[in-house]
Amino acid sequence: MSLLVVGSIAFDSVRTPFGEVEEVLGGSATYFSTASSYFTEVSVVAVVGTDFPEKYLKFLKSKGIDIEGIERREGKTFRWKGEYGYDLNEAHTIDTQLNVFQSFKPRIPERYKDKKVVFLANIDPDLQREVLQQVKDPALVACDTMNYWIEGKRESLLETLKFVDILIINDSEARELSREPNLVRAAKRIFSYGPNTIVVKRGEYGALMFKDDRIFSAPAYPLDSVFDPTGAGDCFAGGFMGYLANTMNFEESNIRKAIIFGSVMASYNVEAFSLDRIKSLDYSEIEARYREFKRLTHFEDLT
Ligand code: AMP
Q: What pLDDT, in 10s, does the model give residues 122-178?
């Protein structure tokens, strides 16, 4: 099935209490497409600079990812520098350099225009819309964002949300976007911006899905070694959207399964820096952890 993502491809420099890496492969589209490649064909729209090594493009290609929509432009690749304290749920951005993204005008390849499932990964909301406007008749549009855009481009983000079915967002960003500290109320407010389904990522506390007046709660997988949470949200979205694009079933019961696949991919990602863990997973490992999630949350009904 056909999944399209627009997002960032980046060099990340990340410090956690357990180590530090400089200029490793990252970016929302990179994590998303790698995670979703285990479920479906995925095509990427993004931009890189002249400093971006060919080996990384080869790596994405080796995962079966369609990279025709990745443009190489004169200039430097996007860079993000972040830090985590012992509370690994919250990234502190130290520096964001948009570089080639600053003047990027996405023009998507002709054969991307018929894609049915679209994910607008964390990126400038103007670019999210520019890509969406070029897709003919998507059956499902989902979107992510972050405080950088909520604070810097709120009006544009609200405009993008009018065209979005599912918003996937982390808890502090949901509060900031809706200007509402309570998550249940925050979700209700965000419904009025456009999305009919909201998935709130809560780091080590799991994820909540809001749809109409119903709520689904999924835990995070309890790991004994969380190394680097960077990209967890994008890997969650990759597993979630990859599974939905593969099944093309957007009923609530299937969305619940997709949330577990998303949680599985996020849990693998945080076990190592950059894409080191998720780049070489076996599908049987994904299924095994899905089953562990099932056992983790099983309890008997009242008799
Ligand atoms: P997350 O899944 O939320 O941990 O996303 C982390 C990824 O988002 C990193 O690999 C960064 O390169 C990327 N990122 C950070 N800030 C931005 C931004 N303002 N726009 C687009 N991508 C970003």
A: 999 999 999 999 999 999 999 999 999 999 999 999 999 999 999 999 999 999 999
Whether 113 and 134 have beta carbons less than 8 Å apart is answered as: yes
Q: Tell me the residue type at 157.
A: L
Atom in ligand 1 nearest the alpha carbon of residue 80: 12
| The two three-digit tokens of residue 142, written as one number | 């989902």
Pocket lining for ligand 1, CB < 6 angstroms: 8, 10, 12, 26-28, 31, 80, 96, 122-123, 146, 148, 230-234
Q: Which of 14-18, 125-129, 164-168, 240-244 has the lowest mean pLDDT?
A: 14-18
d(CA 255, CA 260): 9
Taking a C-beta distance cutoff of 8 angstroms, is the pair 36, 238 a contact?
Answer: yes
- Of 204, 262, 213, 272, the C-alpha closest to 234 is 262
* 214 strand-pairing partners: 211
